[in-house]
Amino acid sequence: MALRKIIEAEGTATVQTPMGLIENGVQRVSFSAYVKVLSVNGNKTDIIATVNFKGDVQQLTKQYFVPVSVASGSPNFIAQVYEHLKTLEEFSGAEDC
Hints:
By secondary structure, the protein is mainly beta. Helices cover 9% and strands 60% of the residues.
């Protein structure tokens, strides 16, 4: 399971030149990203999920606090993370892929 989402991010850009790295200031980027849960760590009520956003050349990783359920019939933790992410405003418009 994964998600596809247009990501808007801000960060410092650097350019590799023969003279070394040149910092190009703060940049805003927008890219289509494949969103994948890399890992989950926690206990039976709360976990921290590490999520990777990967575009053609851009990539970033973020962590999210996710409440989970271990009740009988509950989906596994990874599935619960994806369902939780889709409830967040920053993931509006995300599609399953």
